Amino acid sequence: MSLGPVTRAEGPVRVLIVDDTEAVADTVAALDDCDNLDVAAVADPTAALEAHAESPFDCIVTEFEFDGTAGLDTLLSVRESPNPPPVILFTRLDSEDVVSEAFAAGVTDVVDKRSTDAQFAVLAHRISKASVAARQSTELDELHEWVRVIADQSLVGLYVIRDGRVEFVNEYLSNLLGYDTDEVVDRPITDFIVEEDRAIVDESLRDRSHGSVESMSYTVRIRDNAGDLTTLEITGQRTTVDGEPVVVGTAMDVTARLESERLLRRSERLTRQIISSLPDMVFISEPTEFDVIYINDQFEDAWGRDVSLLYEDPFSFLDLIHVDDRDQLRRAIDEMFADIRDGVADEQYEFEFRFLPEGSDTIRWANARAVPLLDEHGDVTNIIGVVSDLTERISHERELAQQNARLDAFARVLSHDIRGPLAVAQGRLELARELDDDSHLDHVERAHRRIADVVEDVLSLARDERSVFDASEISLADSAATGWEMCSSNVDHVRCEIGELPVVEADESRATRLFENLFRNALQHARGGRTDATGDDSDLVIRVGALPSHRGFFVEDNGPGIPPSIRDRVFDSGFSTKDGDGTGLGLGIVRQIADSHGWAIRAVDGATGARFEVLFDPVGEAGEMA
């Protein structure tokens, strides 16, 4: 028996026939022949309820009346169960009252009960159609429940607006407004917007016949039920529901965020004002390379250049750095950023250098301190640097140091500096006696003259005579050679290489003493323990030469060098690393002699060992800068 096409639901449709007449057999047999229908039968409504409770059916087909049993109203109580199945009345329609009464009672459909193939086909079609609709309704109800749960748990406000009125709000948004959800729905949205911002909402919601904006985003203020103001960031999208235009979207409370942004902007303004008012130059760089993102106006004031040049090329300032300091400063900057990239950054980096402001002929001293800024994870986010002009301080400190050191060091300096020539005199005198050779007495005489010169120099320095009375044009190479002669007696495995040195205005005796003390420092600290590849003692080499600018010179050795941690202290009078074997006077005397000439001396990182550089123009005439 073929009943024709049947609307198919997903999966087999379980059908329960409720009928106490003999015709039930024909109904069951006809429906069993249909694809996708799984049919069972019971004789009365009570049995039907029990069968459905035990194993739910997708559709119930029932007669209208039953002999001596409960009626249709009993069966229809199945609709109170979760996901109730559709109920179809299958009976002879002898009266329109039966149809009206059935629909009024709550049946889904009514089919005339006639034992014909056509009627069974109609019944099968109505069963499948009702089952599909019921399943879709159940799925839709479940979907609505999920949507409701998601909307209520959302951390942003959700809304639907139709014709300017609120169609839907979730719990988050109704709480922001300070009302229950049912108090918000169907009210004009502008009821909740402060009067000054209502025009923004009206303009966004206005229905345009053409040129309509499909999406929108704006910020408005609302006044909640308690009268408090809240700022919302609104996003919306135009769409159509049931053929009518609506706007759906989100609302987020951005009051705290906007306040934080306002405070941050205020903090940034204050920070910039403070930094701009500082006397020092302040800059901020990217964390992994020298790329300036901020610099205050002091750069232009102190260096004489527009700050825009530093933004374009951060290293452009290097051509204002003294030629003798330029390479060291560039290396120090590169090493700092290499440390940061390798994850081993120090808490602070400090550099000291000389520079020549644009359009000026006066050398100035500067100190730069760079501090890596860290985030909460310990990662470097930026570099902040402060560059201070030390010129006046260095000049003042040098003057004070000269005044305070002269009298205090007089006796110790005198005994220290005559020790070298005295040793030469004593040695030569012994040789003269042993060998009966009067030629050694010439060396004794020169040593005695050297002792007298030293005494006179020390006396003049102790009397705070800042000028160099015997200043004349001298050859520094000759002074270095004389100083080496006073130090080189009875020393092995040592050689001194004196290169080309400039001719300068200086006191020859004091210049010689400067070299003597630098050589004696090398002999004391760099000799001993030096071996070559064969294990034999290797030579200590002391080199003297001019700086690239010829505005200074250096003395360096190939010894162990000076640790960076003590380089600033080696010139302090009395400081020594020899654990009681040294007086700590030699380098202090060197600095004192340099100061008396208006020079400066510093210990720097040498190629192999210790390196001292004497600068002729630390503050004052620039000389040749490049």
From TrEMBL:
One of its GO terms (molecular function) is phosphorelay sensor kinase activity. The keyword Phosphoprotein applies. CDD domains: HATPase, HisKA, PAS, REC. It catalyses: ATP + protein L-histidine = ADP + protein N-phospho-L-histidine. The keyword Transferase applies. Residues 413-620 form the Histidine kinase domain. Keywords: Kinase, Phosphoprotein, Transferase. InterPro entries: CheY-like_superfamily, HATPase_C_sf, HATPase_dom, His_kinase_dom, HisK_dim/P_dom, HisK_dim/P_sf, PAC, PAS. Residues 14-128 form the Response regulatory domain. Gene3D superfamilies: 1.10.287.130, 3.40.50.2300, Histidine kinase-like ATPase, C-terminal domain (3.30.565.10), PAS domain (3.30.450.20). Residues 349-402 form the PAC domain. Residues 163-212, 267-340 form the PAS domain. It is an enzyme of class 2 (transferase). PANTHER family: PAC DOMAIN-CONTAINING PROTEIN (PTHR43304:SF1), PHYTOCHROME-LIKE PROTEIN CPH1 (PTHR43304). This is histidine kinase. It comes from Haloferax massiliensis. The gene is walK.
